[in-house]
Design a protein that fits this description.
Blueprint (H helix, E strand, L loop, with lengths): L5 E7 L8 H11 L1 E3 L2 E3 L3 E7 L5 H11 L2 E2 L3 H5 L4 E4 L10 H10 L5 E4 L7 H13 L3 E4 L7 E3 L5 E2 L3 E8 L3 H15 E2 L9 E4 L1 H8 L5 H8 L8 H5 L10 H5 L1 E9 L5 E8 L5 E7 L4 E7 L8 H13 L9 H13 L1
Helix pairs in contact: 1-11, 4-5, 5-12, 6-12
């Protein structure tokens, strides 16, 4: 669906930095982006931003080149907007509940808001935000890049009754690793954590012991890593191929390995494996109820263009133009509950 140009879009973020959703989405709203073999032009007649931590020269250049409107506060940026993107503060997966409530209250009825991350860090806060948005006649959605970026290859999405186990390999600090894990796993297998049951966290050598004890599956890890095009170790030195799992190279390369294992409704188990130093991309593997394994890379094209954000910009822009969410609204509550279980 191709939407007409909107009147006003706004981005509220703590700063502008690459890589990151704030600058990536802002630039695509201003300058356009390629998608589905065409170039989508500027998304709105006016694009406004409130980024108090942004470098002045970054804002000045976009003011000069694209007519960016720099707002004095988030309320001014959001006022009268057809669509508003809220980017959580650095190191946070979701915006503060009171901040989200404030910006929703100044959006015009019929407008839309997108959170570039999780809608909330607690199940109750996610439900409250959706209830408030509905009362204000505002459409509300949320996701980061990994929910919508390219799958290489595309994998069949499995609901909980067809999925037995899923594993994702990520990198980064605990917040980034768990956020990427949730955003990557949720679209591939629609899962809800068992209510009241916390996830199990393993760190360092405990990760390998948990794998040996069957808490997570080595064959799923091998399937996930088979999709990587950024293996580390000797591959970096001379391009050789290596059996990272079979030769025990994973354990040697991993820097502060961590594993979050979660039990889900229907007896499904998921594992988020943070394996810095093993690969430099995000890879997933899913075992279905018949024992078959499906795996893919969640492709994030490299800097400077970071073309994976084209897909997120397309989803957000179409949502602002009136298109329905590509997933059930309850997904945001389930993700918040899952995040709570991991915290």
């Amino acid at each position: 669906m191709i939407m007409g140009k909107l009147n006003k879009l706004a981005v509220v973020a703590p700063g502008l930095a690459k890589p990151g959703a704030s600058l990536a989405l802002l630039d695509r709203f201003l300058a356009g982006y390629p998608e589905d073999a065409v170039f989508r032009g500027r998304a709105a007649s006016e694009v406004s931003v409130f980024c108090p931590g942004a470098a002045p020269e970054a804002l000045a250049r976009r003011q000069r080149d694209f007519g960016l409107v720099v707002a004095p506060n988030d309320e001014a940026a959001a006022a009268g907007a057809d669509g508003l993107v809220v980017v959580p503060a650095e190191g946070h997966a979701a915006p503060a509940p009171d901040h989200l409530q404030n910006v929703l209250s100044v959006l015009k009825p019929g407008g839309a808001c997108w959170v570039a991350g999780l809608l909330a860090a607690r199940e109750q806060d996610a439900a409250s935000a959706l209830k408030l948005a509905k009362s204000l006649q505002i459409r509300l959605g949320a996701s980061d890049l990994l929910s919508v970026t390219f799958r290489l290859p595309e994998v069949r999405r499995l609901r909980s009754e067809r999925c037995r186990e899923a594993l994702i390999v990520v990198q980064g600090d605990d917040t980034r690793a768990t956020l990427d894990g949730l955003q990557g796993l949720k679209p591939e297998a629609e899962l809800s954590p068992v209510p009241g049951r916390t996830a199990r966290l393993y760190e360092n050598d405990m990760v390998w012991r948990a794998g040996a004890n069957g808490e997570w599956s080595w064959d799923l890890l091998a399937a996930a890593l088979s999709r990587s095009n950024n293996p580390q170790g000797d591959a970096v030195a001379d391009g050789r191929t290596q059996d990272l799992v079979g030769l025990g190279i994973v354990q040697r390369l991993a820097q502060r390995p961590r594993a979050w294992v979660t039990d889900h409704v229907g007896g499904v188990r998921t594992t988020i494996l943070a394996l810095d130093g093993v690969v430099r991309d995000v890879n997933i593997a899913i075992r279905d109820r018949s024992g078959g394994i499906h795996s893919a890379q969640l492709y994030r094209p490299p800097a400077p263009n970071e073309a994976g954000y084209h897909r997120l910009a397309g989803v957000v822009t179409r949502f602002f133009g009136g298109e329905a969410l590509p997933w059930p609204e309850t997904r945001e509550i389930e993700l918040a509950a899952w995040w709570e279980a991991l915290s």
